[in-house]
Amino acid sequence: MAAQGRDIKLATSRVEGYRNFATKLWNASRFAEMNGATRVAGFEPSTAKERLNRWIATETTRTARAVTEALEAYRFNDAANALYRFVWNSFCDWYLELVKPVLNGEDEAAKAETRATIGWTLDRIVTLLHPFMPFITEELWDRTADEGGRRDGLLVLNAWPTLDFEDEAAAAEINWLVDLISSVRSVRSEINVPPGAMVPLIIVGASAETTARLATHDALIKRLARASEISAADTPPKGAVQTVLGEATIALPLAGVIDLVAERARLGKELDKAAKEIAKIEAKLGNENFVSRAPEEVIDEQRERLAEAQELTAKINAALERLKD
Question: Would the pTM of this model clear 0.90, i.e. be above it?
Answer without folding.
Answer: no
